[in-house]
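Worked example 2:
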Amino acid sequence: MAFRDRQEGGAALAALLTGYTDRPDVIALGLVRGGMPVAAEVATRLHVPLDALVVRKLGVPWAPEVAFGAIGPGGVQVLNSEISLKPHEMAPVLRHETAELRRRDRLFRIGRDPLDLTGRTALIIDDGLATGATAGAAVAVARALSATRVVLAVPVGATPAVQRLSHLADEVVCPLTSDRFGAVSRYYDDFRQIPDAEVARILNAHLTS
């Protein structure tokens, strides 16, 4: 099974999240960048606000596609206990990703107050769940921002990651899981990269609609 694109993945998620429709306490948070088109579709169909949540995966220096952890705003850091690196191996990655996180957070929050989830139900949405490191950081960030309830929603996910995240989030919604997951891109016909400008456009469109 594959989705045509991220919008179709978002439509599949929205069909499973109808209990959150029109609720004033709910907000859809797209993980930047790939999660934003998915989250926009969910927000539109559920009639809830949309915002961006910036977290950064920490890639192993000699194998960047493998995550040893992730970071989010407010100094939140989540490390993958299955991968052991020495401090001097992690330090340059942390420096680089922290700088990029701050850049993107400034870019996407231009003219808007810092994200405040006090008393709200946060629907954290991404295009897929492979290792779960980034999603784990996102859940931690949402809790640090005082969310009352944290729901992680992804169209596709690796079974072990979904199981692990179910212990961190209050609820995990994932219509398609696999024990032999591979890459998220395998589950989309169109998995093009999402540039910063498109994230900004999606956010502006929802803020003015």
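The CA atoms of residues 30 and 52 lie 5 Å apart. The first strand starts at residue 26 and ends at 31.
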